[in-house]
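Journal club prep — side note

Before the paper discussion, L.F. wants everyone to see what a predicted structure for a comparable chain looks like in token form. Sequence:
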Amino acid sequence: MKECNWKPVRIIDTTLREGEQAPGVYFDLKVKKQIVDGLVKVGVDEIELGVASRENDDLAPLAEYIRTAYPQQAFSLWCRCMEADVHHGASLTPDCLSLSIPASDLHLEKKLGKDRRWALRQLRKSIKQALAAGVPKVALGLEDASRADIGFVLELARAAEEAGAFRLRLADTVGICSPTDIARLLEKMSGLEMELGVHCHNDFGMATANTITGLENGALWGDATLLGLGERAGNCRLEEVLAFITLQKKTGTYNITAVSDLSRMVAQECRQEIPLTRPVIGANLFSCETGIHLQGIMADPVTYEPFDPESVGAKRTLLIGRQAGRRSICATLSRLGMTLPDEPGLVHLTRRVRSLAVSLQRPLSDREIIGLLGSEV
């Protein structure tokens, strides 16, 4: 794999297109505007507003909203390589029209009843139509690229490049790739002059890892959705990929605290609960109960935390329970302003803390710890 300097990296949020395809997810126009507000605050590089179709009643007012409220924010529309759709998409004056066409014979034949010659002819025609209509930038997404014949993927890519497309987005449509597969796929595209992007699904839990790998191996663009919303197991999670880029790779200017707030708002609108240990945004990420970990965190949080809680809008919570050690109990008593017992008393107190936590099946509150100390005295 290529060594990556992480400059530049650009993220497309497609919550309003791909994310809304998740079963049971329905955003009304008001919520869509709130999501746009949040994504602008986060600082994503491009917002994919939805599918260019006359049946999408919210698309025109949403496009007008983002043009008026945030003229500096780039936005795109996903569009089939169909004349009517391209015409409608261009009429909404996006910064980019992201055309899409199947790359695999499976999708071409089974879904559309078409062949490779049709795909090549249609993408050339659609790209030229969009550019002639005044769309500033036209991109091409290759659906099911990960299961397509690589020679044909390259043929489609070169045809798109010759027709004037500026970006090629490779889709792992059913999430079958590993990071190594993504790296190899991008290596095959290395001779292209177009900017490359990856669109990864999460069927085997690899979407975020595959997106990061893509960005490390030649892709300039990565797609993501808030909470990983999308069909089946969803997509690359925006909160994860942005946090990794910003906090681990120390690049980009994304507002990760805003990602956490926005994710929680979207979860509420989708009637979803965020798992307590969900990376970046889980409520229990910085809750620690293990004795040896507590000892390390009290000495220096970096020992067991990859980033500061404040960087993602969270707070650290140190819990005293069944795995508590004497040092962590001493630190807790000092925090509470309590007088420390002698060594035998501390040993006994530690045992009682652990025993009570086991019986209650939870960590102890400060009041309960004070109560145990009082009974010892």
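L.F.'s comment for the group: The chain has a mean pLDDT of 91. Keep this in mind when we get to the figures.
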